[in-house]
Amino acid sequence: MFFRKKINWHKVFDSIDAINAQVAVGRVTTINVERKKICLARTADGFFAVNDKCPHNGASLGNGYCTAEGSVVCPVHRYHFDLRTGRAKSGLGDFVQTYPIEVRDDGVYIGFEQLVWNWLKK
Ligand code: FES
Q1: Which of 25, 35, 96, 97 sits most deeply, having the most CB atoms within 10 A of its CB?
Q2: In a domain, 112, yes or no
Q3: How many domains does the chain have?
Q4: For the CA of 78, the nearest atom of ligand 1
Q5: In terms of DSSP H, where are the helices of 23-92?
Q6: What does residue 16 show for φ and ψ, rounded to 5 degrees?
């Protein structure tokens, strides 16, 4: 295989208390990370991050809301996107990019996947 996936982690909050204060359960918001707009959502199952731009017509998903079933709902045409997979509900072909989130001792991180050449690494 010529490429392998690498995750670049970016610190977005200094502590779990800071992210808890920013996003209540059932809410979403938009944060900027490395020139990307990210929709940060919080459900009863935890925090999720997806690309902020709705694939249907470009609205900010961070202005929407999330459901108890684990979807973010676009504020414009109310399309639902699964926060774990990024797939649109109701048989639509659209999807949003999802990003992993890690809570560490020194803060909360979001990961951006990158493809890198594999031939020099073992
Ligand atoms: S712009 Fe998001 S559903 Fe239409």
Answers
A1: 96
A2: no
A3: 1
A4: 3
A5: none
A6: -65, -30
CATH of the domain at 41: 2.102.10.10
Q: Is residue 2 part of a domain?
A: no
pLDDT digits (tens, 9 = 90+) for 38-86: 999 999 999 999 999 999 999 999 999 999 999 999 999 999 999 999 9
Domain span at residue 30? 12-107
43 close to 66: Cβ distance less than 8 angstroms: yes
- pTM (global) more than 0.85: yes
The full length of the chain comes to 122
Sorted by sequence, the CB contacts under 8 Å of residue 73 that are 6+ apart come out as: 64, 65, 66, 67, 79, 80, 81
* 26 CA distance to ligand 1 middle (Å): 19
Choosing from 30, 39, 51, 56 the residue with most ligand 1 atoms within 8 A of its CB, the one to mutate for a pocket test is 56
- Residue 114 belongs to a domain: no
Q: Helices in 23-86 by DSSP H: which ranges?
A: none
C-alpha span between 81 and 42 (Å, rounded): 14
